[in-house]
Amino acid sequence: MKNVKARFTDKLFSAGNSTLVLINLLGTLTFSAAASGGHLVIIGGGSRPANVTQRFIELAGGGAAAHLIVISLASEDVDTTAQHAVEEFKGLGVSHVEALPSAPEEAVRALGQATGVYLSGGDQQRLVDEMARIKALGALLEVWRRGGVIAGT
Fold first, then answer.
1. Which is the most buried residue in 3, 39, 118, 134, by most CB within 10 A?
2. pLDDT tens string 104-140
3. Residue 45 belongs to a domain with what CATH number?
4. Coil, strand, or helix at residue 80?
5. Cα–Cα distance between 76 and 16 in angstroms, integer?
């Protein structure tokens, strides 16, 4: 299992085969779930039920302790989507929530502090391409590996 996990790095993601790599990343999360890691909250398209959103916040540590990162890179309107989600989570009592920064170093730093990550809906190919561009895919996986929660569509 360790060898399988070690293959998934930002270098692999920048190799240009984004769709295959996304499948492999999800496979790593799925197959290593029994051994260690955090939680995945899989939400289908459309609105998020309130109880699912609340459970996501709880799994991330609760309103005051949670540190959420919103990744809206799949959206056609990245800024508006991120702003809406950040405001929603703040309205639900989350003290520390921010959109993923676009600068690579800042994105990796932000994910390094995250207890939870919310992925908005949209074009998943765009999501993978942008995460590879800012070299943040490995950092996203690390959130989960250290016990964080990843949620979204």
1. 118
2. 999 999 999 999 999 999 999 999 999 999 999 999 9
3. 3.40.50.880
4. helix
5. 21
Q: What is the pTM of this model?
A: 0.78
Percent of the chain with pLDDT over 90: 71
β-bridge partners, 39 = 149
- Split into its structural domains, the chain has a count of 1
Residue 53 to residues 35, 62, 99, 137, Cα–Cα distance (Å)? 26, 11, 17, 23
Domain of residue 128 covers: 2-152
Q: Is 109 exposed, middle or buried (0-12, 13-18, 19+ CB in 10 A)?
A: middle
Alpha-carbon distance of 72 to 153, in angstroms, equals: 11
Centroid of chain to Cα 21: 15
